Amino acid sequence: MKSFLPRSMLAASTFALFGAVCQPAVAQVIKVDGSSTVYPITEAVAEEFQKFNRGLKVTVGVSGTGGGFKRFCRNETDISDASRPITRSEMDACKAAGVEYFELPVAFDALTVVINPRNTWLKQATVAELKKLWEPAAQGKVMRWNQVNPTWPDQPVKLFGAGSESGTFDYFTEAIVGKSKSSRSDFTASEDDNVLVQGVAGDVNALGYFGYAYYAENRNKLKALPIVEKDGKQAVLPSEGTVINGTYQPLARPIFIYVNAKSLGKPEVKKFVDFYLVNAAKMSKEVKYVPLPADAYKTAAAHLTQGKKGTVFGGKNEVGITIAELLKREASQ
User: Is residue 87 included in any domain, yes or no?
Assistant: First the structure.
């Protein structure tokens, strides 16, 4: 299995010669942490960046969106990967610490519900069925598939999902249950999506959810579950096409990097962020996310140049926003 592992963290220290004396140089480090969903893009960009910028090191952590924002708002990192917009409480924490930031959308994700390939009876699921499976009231009660839908078998349910620090957890619960962080807790939770992949791949009665990139890398071990739109017209599979045309709802979402405005004053951070925006479309596609239109990255670069800091989401995690709606909002900032 191809796994998204932080290879950039293994880079050796850089040394430099100054005149006749050989001294160890202090590596210029760009610190990134946050979402495991955004990690594959940022790590891919970081690897390319380091190839062309010897002496600059990018470290990419995976603390989850919430964990990443905690560090970011303590001035511990330069960039925070986020699979949802910054929340009001996180905005307040950053403000209290004097941290200003730029919000830069980098791609769209199709949050994917997956089942085991040996599961031959689950053909699709509605939002209502997923809610019945995941809502807090299901804890300790909805333990078998036929309790959700009587046409499903009398078999035990095994659930795998994002950890509580994950932006994916926040988004999924809001989109499916109707309230962020509102979920049963008797399931296998992890900030490491590879743990969830292995869990679903190992149990015919398993169901889980995570970012599309982790499904795409493990198609031989997993099966994506078509989700019936809220209007009940059709069951839709996650794909680049269904994200672009707006039919994969409510689980399509923008994903972001947040850049500390003070850090952007450091030449190495500015260089990395500029490189990121130039290469985000290519790298997003490479790791199986949906790139934004070229104008979106140009708009993000213009926001940096013009000093347009802050968020266009007002501290709310909005469900169902399309690429077209995102671009309109970003352009009006």
Answer: yes
